[in-house]
Design goal:
Helix content is 33%, strand content 23%. By secondary structure, the protein is α/β, with parallel strands linked by helices. Helix 2 packs across helix 5 (90-102).
């Protein structure tokens, strides 16, 4: 099915069909059509995630959306592992549950919550995009934009991680600008030194930015920032001037685990600035 036709069909369906019918269609479309046809060009960082995770590992996907990372992570940690998939928007959470059910991801535990620095209730904004809503950009930190407001339950990473049978060794955070606040509720988790994949909300070279605050927290815990250069198939240390959206935070132990990965790891003493906006 050509991409243009799929886009037109989704737009038509959301305008014409009732929401429950759209939910049913999406609950079939994503697990049966989208995920089996996904490639590394869609989510290049999954190359690194697959190289890092092993059968029996435990991982967290916070901001799981419909489950593209959850699906891959579940495949990596099986058998014997577990993935905690966290998604705040009720409608998107139903889609995530459908993906987990259709894909038979028995290792996945789904939780309907927004990751923050405290347990409670908050309002998320699903921004408008043309004549539709952009569920991918739903955020606790965009109250100024036009869109649909949704009441969601919030909880901390430390509290949510306690539902897992084993301590997580990998955490992915994609919270549309709320990552710094979420880390404030993850002090116990940070002490366990899992590997992290974060979407940085702004410029880490700006001392006043949230991203710079995140870098400071992670560096104080013994992490270094890395990004995956998919074109060169190289994991690079982030240097000033490099601004990839997604950043891996690894310790030396994590890098040792990636020694046999199907990509190169740039030696720290050879790292140079790569001006990237992704």
């Amino acid at each position: 099915m050509p991409k243009q036709f799929r886009t037109l069909f989704r737009s038509w369906a959301k305008r014409v069909l009732p929401s429950f019918a759209v939910d049913r269609l999406q609950g079939w479309y994503y697990p049966i059509w989208v995920l089996p046809r996904a490639s590394d060009s869609d989510e290049p960082d999954l190359v690194v995630v697959r190289a890092f995770l092993r059968p029996g590992d435990t991982a967290i996907d916070a901001g799981a959306n419909y489950g593209s990372y959850t699906d891959e992570m579940a495949s990596c940690v099986a058998p014997g592992g577990q993935v905690l998939a966290i998604e705040p928007i009720p409608r998107t959470f139903r889609l995530l549950k459908a993906v987990v059910r259709y894909r038979r991801l028995q290792a996945v535990l789904c939780v309907n919550a927004a990751v923050s620095d405290r347990k409670g209730v908050a309002e998320m904004t699903i921004p408008e995009m043309g004549d539709a809503l952009n569920f991918y950009r739903a955020s606790l930190d965009r109250s100024e934009v036009s869109g649909e407001r949704v009441s969601v339950e919030t909880d901390t990473l430390d509290s949510l991680a306690s539902q897992l049978e084993e301590a997580p060794g990998f955490v992915k955070l994609d919270l549309e600008g709320h990552e710094r606040t979420a880390l404030a509720g993850a002090s116990r988790l940070l002490e366990l030194s899992p590997a992290w994949l974060l979407e940085l909300p702004d410029d880490p070279d700006d001392p006043a930015s949230d991203a710079a605050s995140i870098e400071k927290v992670m560096q104080s815990r013994g992490y270094a920032a890395w990004w995956y250069d998919a074109e060169a198939r190289v994991l690079r240390r982030r240097k000033r001037g490099a601004r990839p959206v997604n950043i891996f935070y690894f310790t030396e132990d994590h890098l040792e685990r990636l020694r046999d990965a199907p990509f190169d790891i740039e030696p720290a003493n050879q790292a140079v600035s790569h001006h990237v906006n992704m």
